[in-house]
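Quick one:
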Amino acid sequence: MDNGKISVRYARALFETAKEQQCETEVYEQLMRLTGNYSQAIGAFDEALSNPIIPSEEKVKLLKTAIGDPIHPCLARFIEFVSEKKRENKILLIALKYQEMYRKEENLLKAEVTTAAEIDDQAVQRIRQFVEQTFNRRVEMHLKTNPELIGGFILDIEHNRMDSSVKGLLEKIKKDELLTRPEGVPYQ
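Output:
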């Protein structure tokens, strides 16, 4: 069976169960912790969860540890169920699909803002308002810093990028200059 179909079915089952138990937000936040920790050590997680020699109980402990405390009983039972079905290696895809379903249900847009340095709350609020007004959706915003940007910011919204960084502008100028400069003419 297709990995995508498997992850969608399991995610949908978890989402429906969480909605019935009115814990979909808690489960969402806990799955965000899981995917964050998973992405930091993706190779080790994949290896451990795909290894048939490692007992299911150990895989469940690993996943619960990656989620951290507290863990909602609904999610704890779901992880045990996934383990019983020998689908531990699909948990990342399942978690990502659940998050996608939750955001759609809640009309929530995921955005990541990368700046050269820390920005104040007022700047964060202006960016948040811009995104919310532009897309007419609430925003879940994550902030990162990257000093290589020199100044400005990069705004990633789902599969779109708006690069207003100094580094990005310099790269664009360089690219445009290379495209318009006749071959063999040196930089001045």
